[in-house]
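TASK: fixed-backbone design
INPUT:
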């Protein structure tokens, strides 16, 4: 039986992972599940999957979790240290599906014990890509991408040499506002930004899709994961979300990966890799679909894409600055304190400020330094948000 743990088990990716695991319960020995405030879901899944331990990220939720697990054999734990302790428990395969930089420390810990880390938590690659890749190499662990685009690229590279790659094209749906007049974007409401045309995902990544912060993170993720130069990475708007990515080779061949917009494909690929197994995803009927459309992204509509270039040029800790500022700007937008378009203005300001004024930006990439610069970026984003409100 394979020992597995799922971090962020109560979220959209976590629940899709559980859906796949629950179809073959005898194949898996579940070690740890983690969640946040959805204690009923966390406890129900932990009991059904006979996990050793269920961890909530929030200490104030421990009594509720203990109560929900009463009478079962599942241990209850809470808080960031408990997450790391759970990640240190031996497991063969670990799903990293916490949202935000909070997923970084547990992911690193899982790699340190030699696990295969299925990485949905793109923020950790953006903040600390070199550290994660190096940790995986050092401990014989393995990092598998669980983002539809990156899974598609990874699949396109099977049997190929990365030196034969000329370019990597990741597609973007264009999000909720792809056809809005740009002048209307400042007035976009939270409800409008929280509805995705093609994918059913957590609220934060859905809003990040409307602003293309998600695609900006994914461009950086591509750079870190596949170690290609920034100039080799392209973004292509593809409203149907059926082609997930394309790999262009030196001989001019362009290999596309197509599939239904269902994350169980990328999750299942990482779960069974290097094998391919039957997955409960819809099969595409291209004759019925008829046509696929593509267009270049409008950089004025999506300033985050330009900011990704700035981050990749500087590299090092700039990814953590960008992500930290983005996470706080998103918090302020969700709380109704700033407008939709203020988010990219805040990240632009924080990037410029920390790049030119902080000595810390040139420090080594350690978990401590990433954490420090993340806090610095969050404080700078709060100050910039106060300015937007004023
Ligand atoms: P979600 O909001 O649905 O779930 C997030 C999970 O993280 C929940 O289990 C929540 O309890 C937990 N969590 C939240 N804050 C936490 C904290 N501070 N500490 C510890 N745990 C915390 O998110 P999601 O859509 O499932 O996305 C998860 C990750 O996968 C993100 O990094 C996202 O970018 C990435 N991703 C998601 C999709 C998708 O289709 N949903 C696709 C590609 C990549
Ligand atoms: Mg994606």
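OUTPUT:
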């Amino acid at each position: 039986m394979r020992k597995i743990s799922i971090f962020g088990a109560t979220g959209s990716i976590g629940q899709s992972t559980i859906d796949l695991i629950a179809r073959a319960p005898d194949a898996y020995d579940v070690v740890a599940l983690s969640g946040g405030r959805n204690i009923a879901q966390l406890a129900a899944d932990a009991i059904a999957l006979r996990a050793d331990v269920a961890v909530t990220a929030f200490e104030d939720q421990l009594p509720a979790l203990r109560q929900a697990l009463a009478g079962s054999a599942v241990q209850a734990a809470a808080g960031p240290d408990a997450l790391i302790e759970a990640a240190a428990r031996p497991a063969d395969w670990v799903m990293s599906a916490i949202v935000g930089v909070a997923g970084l420390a547990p992911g690193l810990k899982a790699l340190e014990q030699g696990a295969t880390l299925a990485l949905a938590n793109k923020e950790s690659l953006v903040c600390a890509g070199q550290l994660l890749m190096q940790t995986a190499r050092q401990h014989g662990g393995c990092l598998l991408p669980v983002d539809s685009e990156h899974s598609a690229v990874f699949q396109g590279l099977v049997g190929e040499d990365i030196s034969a790659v000329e370019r990597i094209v990741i597609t973007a749906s264009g999000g909720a506002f792809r056809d809005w007049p740009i002048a209307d974007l400042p007035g976009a409401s939270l409800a409008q930004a929280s509805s995705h045309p093609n994918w059913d995902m957590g609220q934060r990544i859905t809003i990040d899709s409307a602003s293309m912060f998600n695609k900006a993170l994914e461009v950086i993720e591509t750079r870190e994961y596949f170690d290609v130069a920034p100039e080799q990475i392209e973004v292509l708007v593809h409203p149907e979300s059926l082609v997930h990515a394309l790999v262009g080779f030196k001989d001019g061949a362009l290999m596309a990966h197509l599939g239904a917009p269902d994350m169980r494909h990328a999750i299942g690929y990482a779960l069974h890799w290097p094998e391919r197994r039957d997955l409960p995803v819809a099969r595409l009927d291209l004759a019925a679909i008829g046509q696929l459309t593509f267009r270049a992204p409008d950089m004025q509509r999506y300033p985050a894409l330009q900011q990704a270039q700035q981050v990749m040029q500087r590299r090092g800790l700039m990814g953590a600055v960008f992500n930290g500022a983005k996470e706080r700007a998103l918090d302020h937008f969700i709380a109704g304190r700033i407008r939709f378009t203020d988010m990219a203005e805040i990240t632009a300001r924080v990037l410029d400020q920390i790049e030119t004024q902080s000595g810390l930006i040139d420090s080594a990439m350690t978990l401590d330094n990433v954490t420090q610069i993340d806090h610095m970026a969050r404080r700078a984003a709060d100050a910039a948000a106060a300015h937007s409100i004023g």
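COMMENT: The domain at 2-145 is CATH 3.40.50.720 (Rossmann fold).
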